[in-house]
Design brief:
The complex is a heterodimer. Chain A is mainly alpha-helical. Chain A has 15 helices and no strands. Classes of the chains: A mainly alpha, B mainly alpha.
Chain lengths: ~350, ~325
């Protein structure tokens, strides 16, 4: 017995085999702590940097007296704080939405932007503003939502009828995207006076979002995210076929349609405020999926997405403090290498 | 006998189609010359009023300039993508879905910002950029499945577009007119560019027809094509060079909007089957017609404002693309 134990290197804590490689030492809670820490760091950095540079003391003073009329307080409470909050909401929302879409459709290339949802939302919003500049937020949201859902269903229907593979669906989605993109451009050119009121960027922009906008979406947003976190315990069952999942006691059709609906709702909600963020919902889940599953995956996607957009917001402020570029552009440049790796890694998905 | 009849009838069919398309192009050309923000009629030419005559001649010259440009650019883009689709055996390859147009535009704009450039320089840069874009895309996709190439291309293309837009924010004001070409707007195009692109078309299109003779070898594998006496690599390279020259030089007119490239060759192939030379000729005509139509519509619909031709083309071709997908490729694995 003694010999047996001694011969087994796994039981010897000082043996070289016991030293785990670095990526195994990074456990999930540890990584999450780091991400949350980084989120806090970048929230503070985003509040501090920009066209006007403030001292830390000014920022804390602004938070202690949010009603004061000093310049730092107004700039921070009415411009930067909404920007930081919407960056976190948008990042987490789109990442979770992408994760849900990928799980539900079992398509590793699914993404709210490449399924036509985001540009359809943008198109609906701009069309609404063009037809009636005084339109209420709720009406816009409803129209944007129906536009997003309709486009998604249309893309899926065409994909089904043409027998498209997962990359084929992407191509159809790109066709829809280019259609909507061109239509939006045409509207912006043809009716410049109506569209001047639209603080809206085709590449996604956090500028111009007010606290009132955030108040409008925060409640449905929190409800949706909580719902996803509660429901996501069984998300791994989506990888199975219908018979197996049903045998394990899950009403798979209902579950699938709920998750799909939540994904579309989330992305529409976000996109109607910040505009389309291409590829974001595709890339973030792929960073998370190798390390986490189920509820953990949703949670990790949310915090990682928030962190990435906060970093992108910081970079945009650094690049041009006076006229910050759309955040979508910086974000795209940041995740482009990741996307190339994803596409190379998942080449075998279509083979079966 | 049967065979000869079949061929001649097929040839007649194609000839009839070419005639029809040319007639359409002629109609759109004349309509485009007359309509626009300033309505022209034939009247001024018969009048002796020299001032009205001069004005009409000036407007006509401007319009003819951009219409010829639209025709050449649309046609060259479509023919170039037809060649690429044959080369890669992938009916879903288009210049903007493989990163060709965006990297070409990126190079052109970089050069324009760093130190101003001439039309010739722009065309050269466009050609180099489109070659680089395609090679990068093929390298990164590593000959995986067909649509993976497209997906890699889309990523490259959007990244390069993001870079272009970041550059544009930093661009000095005096070139903002020049940047209009990105969306395929032809109004800022100079007559020098027009002459050069017409020249390129006249040089390249005969070359395409010479190369088109053996183009079907790309349906075979390398060994078979060698054994029937076609130097595969050299032929492939020359086809690729010609294709990227066509696409690169069309950039100055079409800009970053190349969705036309996926549609025109597919329609051409539907109309005349797998006959390379006919496909190229029909692609040229269809591409030219669609782009000309888009330019004219964009000019007339919301005048005095103007919707860039590239945007109009996208609006026209995206539904056509879905239609093509739905009716020609329905249930086939061929395009996946």
């Amino acid at each position: 017995m003694v010999i047996g134990r001694a011969a087994d290197p796994g039981n010897d804590p000082h043996h070289a085999y016991m030293k785990k490689p670095i990526h195994q030492q990074l456990t999930l809670p540890f990584a999450q702590t780091i991400i949350i820490f980084l989120i806090m760091v970048f929230v503070l950095l985003d509040l501090k940097s920009g066209a006007m540079k403030f001292q830390w003391s000014e920022i804390f003073a602004a938070f202690q007296h949010p009603e004061s009329t000093s310049i730092p307080a107004i700039a921070i409470m009415q411009v930067r704080l909404p920007m930081v909050i919407i960056a976190m909401l948008a990042g987490s929302g789109l990442a979770v939405s992408g994760l849900l879409l990928q799980s539900v459709t079992q398509n590793p290339l699914a993404c709210p932007s490449l399924s036509g949802i985001e540009y359809a939302t943008a198109f609906s919003v701009i069309l609404c503003y063009m037809l009636d500049p005084e339109i209420s937020r709720a009406a816009i949201m409803m129209i944007a939502l129906s536009g997003g859902i309709l486009t998604y269903l249309l893309v899926q229907w065409i994909a089904k009828r043409t027998g498209a593979s997962s990359a084929g669906i992407t191509l159809i989605g790109v066709a829809f995207n280019s259609l909507y993109y061109s239509a939006i451009q045409a509207i912006l050119i043809a009716f410049p006076y109506q569209s001047q009121a639209i603080l809206y960027d085709l590449n996604g922009s956090l500028i111009g979002v007010t606290l009132a906008d955030i108040q409008f979406i925060i409640l449905p947003y929190l409800l949706l995210i909580t719902g996803v976190l509660l429901l996501s315990k069984r998300m791994d069952l989506l990888d199975m076929d219908d018979a197996h999942a049903t045998a394990l006691g899950l009403n798979i059709r209902k579950y699938r349609s709920i998750m799909l609906g939540v994904a579309i709702l989330l992305s529409t909600l976000i996109t109607s405020l910040v505009g389309p963020l291409l590829f974001f919902g595709l890339a973030v889940p792929h960073l998370v999926r190798p390390f986490a599953r189920g509820t953990q995956a949703v949670w990790c996607c949310a915090i990682l997405g928030a962190l990435l957009l906060l970093i992108a917001a910081y970079v945009t402020q650094m690049l041009a403090p006076q006229t910050p570029p759309p955040i979508g552009l910086v974000m795209l440049l940041m995740i482009a290498p990741i996307l190339i790796v994803i596409i190379q890694r998942y080449r075998s998905y279509d083979e079966n | 006998m049967m065979k000869i009849n079949y061929h001649s009838s097929h040839r007649n069919n194609v000839a009839r189609m070419i005639l029809l398309l040319s007639t359409f192009i002629g109609i759109v050309l004349i309509a485009g010359l007359l309509f626009g923000t300033v309505l022209l009629d034939i009247h001024p030419f018969t009048q002796t009023n020299s001032r009205a005559n001069n004005l009409a001649a000036f407007v006509l010259e401007l319009r003819l300039n951009r219409e010829v440009l639209a025709l050449c650019c649309g046609g060259m883009l479509a023919t170039g993508s037809a060649i690429l689709q044959g080369l890669t055996r992938n009916p879903m390859v288009a210049p903007d879905l493989t990163g060709m147009t965006s990297i070409g535009c990126l190079l052109i704009i970089l050069c324009e910002i760093l130190h101003g450039s001439s039309p010739l320089m722009n065309i050269m840069l466009g050609i180099i950029g489109s070659m680089l874009g395609f090679l990068l895309c093929i390298y990164l996709a590593k000959k995986r499945q067909r649509l993976m190439v497209v997906l890699t291309g889309i990523t490259i293309s959007f990244t390069a577009t993001a870079l272009i837009q970041l550059l544009m924010l930093k661009a000095p004001d005096h070139i903002s007119d020049f940047l209009q070409f990105l969306n395929g707007s032809l109004y800022a195009a100079s007559s020098q560019t027009m002459v050069m692109l017409t020249g390129m078309t006249l040089i390249l299109m005969p070359l395409v027809f010479v190369l088109g003779k053996r183009f079907l070898v790309f349906a075979l594998d390398e060994q078979t094509s060698r054994s029937i006496g076609v130097p595969f690599t050299a032929y492939q390279t020359s086809c690729f060079l010609v294709a990227s020259m066509l696409i690169g030089s069309s950039l100055m007119g079409v800009g970053n909007m190349g969705f036309l490239g996926i549609v025109a060759p597919n329609i051409a192939r539907y109309l005349c089957g797998q006959r390379p030379r006919y496909v190229f000729a029909l692609s040229f005509l269809i591409g030219g017609l669609l782009y000309l139509l888009a330019d004219t519509l964009g000019r007339c619909l919301v005048s005095p404002a103007e919707i860039p031709a590239g945007i109009m083309t996208n609006m026209i071709t995206a539904p056509i693309f879905l239609y093509v997908l739905f009716h020609f490729y329905r249930g086939q694995d061929g395009w996946n």
